[in-house]
Amino acid sequence: MDSELSRVLFISIELFLQFGVKSVNMDQIASSCGISKKTLYKHVKNKEDLLEKAFEQAVVFMKAELEEAIASVEGNAIDQLFAMERFAEVHMRDDKDRLLHQLEHYYPSIASGMKAKREDIVFAVTKRNLERGIREGLYREDLQVDHIALLYYGHILAVHEGVISNEHIKLDQLRKTSLRYHIRGIASASGLAYLNQLIAT
Questions:
Q1: In this structure, how many other beta carbons lie within 10 angstroms of the beta carbon of residue 24?
Q2: In the predicted model, what is the mean pLDDT of the chain?
Q3: Residue 8 contacts by C-beta under 8 Å, 6 or more apart in sequence?
Q4: What is the pTM of this model?
Q5: Nearest to 58, CA basis, from 109, 115, 105, 108
Q6: C-alpha distances out from residue 10 to 7, 27, 133, Å
């Protein structure tokens, strides 16, 4: 991607975070980037095109950060699951995620596309984790990997996007319960023993 365009998209996201998707106009974006509107329109067709490109870039960054978080884990598939959950806790309830909710209201087609791309990323990473856990003997061999990957993504959405809401339940406790529930549903005897060891420490 062109470096000037990348800079424009980064600054645009910062403006959207500060003022909201609807409030920011192309004049503000050009001014904040230190370029003319004519130059801005060399990179994007209109505000909708800018929004789409900006959020696509944000998804690319999210994927890279998630892959880095997973790669930094030296342990097994279960250890990676805990790392993925920590990543989701930070990134699926941050300011950028609230921007996605604004997109749903004002630019629903862009929001739909971004959610689909995010789902593809999480699905691929989860599927890879399941396949690794089966190879390591920590997950059961009879798992329907595609089905479990979809169900796990549903867990993430339910916990982190308010699908499940109860003011008496603390989010961090719900997150831990959800992850343990998922692992207990897929784990072999060895996997359950390892999970219990993690919980005990």
A1: 20
A2: 89
A3: 29, 33, 35, 40, 43, 44, 50
A4: 0.83
A5: 115
A6: 5, 16, 37
Query: From 1.10.357.10, 2.60.40.10, 1.10.287.990, 2.40.110.10, which CATH number describes the 47-200 domain?
Result: 1.10.357.10
* Stretch 156-178: mean pLDDT: 69
**What whole-number distance in Å separates Cα of residue 127 and Cα of residue 145?**
6
Print burial letters for 132-163: b (CB count within 10 Å at least 16), e (below 16). Answer: ebbeeebbbeebebeebbeebbebbbebbeee
Distance between CA atoms of residues 196 and 184, nearest Å: 10
Domain ranges of the chain: 47-200
Q: In this model, does residue 158 exceed pLDDT 90?
A: no
Task: Give 109-172 as a 3 state SS string.
Answer: HHHHHHHHHHHHHHHHHHHHHHHHHHHHCCECCCCCHHHHHHHHHHHHHHHHCCCCCCCCCCHH
DSSP state of 21: T
Q: Which SS3 state, helix, strand or coil, does residue 61 take? A: helix
